[in-house]
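Before relying on records like the one below, remember that each one covers exactly one chain. Contacts with other chains, cofactors or solvent are not represented anywhere in the record.
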Amino acid sequence: MDAPELQPISAPTAMKIVEAASYLFMQRGYKAVAITDIIKAAEVTKPTLYYYFADKEELFVQTGLRVTAAMGERMRAAAATPGGIAARLQAIAEVLMADRDTDMRMMRHEMFEHLGQPQRARLSRAFFLHIFSPIVQVMEDGITSGELARYAPVTLAKMFMGMAESFQEFAPRRVAGQAAQHSTMFGDAALSTADLVDLFLNGVSGAAKV
């Protein structure tokens, strides 16, 4: 069971407020969103909002807890995929790549830019618990089975996440109501999750394709 401070709030009215705040934070960024904007978007009163949340920081934290918890469920399921390490890593990569449009990097940037240390620590613990730990577990299993070697599980997990973020940078971008658009700067060749896992496990020379 997660520590209480890492559990997203579950009251229906509170969830409605968090959903409205999440949309505004992602659209405008933390600094540009006022409490009055959230009250209007959620269609609640100021006393109702403050009944559930102490301030805007707590609302942003709840946004992060909600995202990481939901993604964590998918990460744990992916980590338990039957088969070898390659199959499990590809399943994890599918989850990481599918969430590119929620822009986790933007959330982390906003967290470090605007939140106080206690709130940053909460979100960091949630990220480690829900998103990073399942990857570490797969790396540990890979070392035990002999499929992976040389590096510590945490190091391997960091390397894999770093590669996944790089692949996201070159992936097609999706605009609401439109098909995915490839970056014209880098051409239109999509990088697949299979490519990501192949590069991670085999390196450039092993992954070279004719």
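The two ends are 49 Å apart (CA to CA).
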